[in-house]
Specification:
The chain has 110 residues and is mainly α. It is 85% helix and 0% strand.
């Protein structure tokens, strides 16, 4: 349970993130992708498989599995709607990583 001051600050912070160019670009690309439900489903499958490979593969086999995965989806990634969304999503994820790193560093959270 958040205390009132922390909740108010968090609400303001989330609003700031939503007003960032990075978030706006991500949200725009997400909405653009969702206009094509079949393509949206395929992107979600791509993302799921990518996650599974990266999180279940042994280190010594990761490179080969990722190489095969990238080759399998090469044509798929050439679709501008797909590519634009995945680039925007990656930029937003990196922004969130930077925010988490900053917050944990400022709080001396080890």
């Amino acid at each position: 349970m958040l205390d009132n001051r922390v909740e108010a600050a968090a609400t303001k912070f989330v609003k700031s993130i939503k007003e960032s160019d990075t978030y706006k670009a991500y949200y725009y690309q997400l909405e653009r992708l969702k206009r094509n439900p079949e393509l949206y489903e395929k992107v979600n499958e791509f993302r799921k498989r990518n996650y599974e490979i990266q999180n279940t593969s042994q280190v010594d086999e990761l490179f080969d599995k990722m190489d095969a995965f990238e080759k399998e989806y090469e044509k798929f990634r050439e679709n501008p709607v797909v590519d634009d969304f995945l680039r925007a999503e990656l930029a937003f994820c990196r922004l969130m990583q930077e925010i988490y790193t900053y917050i944990t560093g400022e709080l001396d959270f080890q």
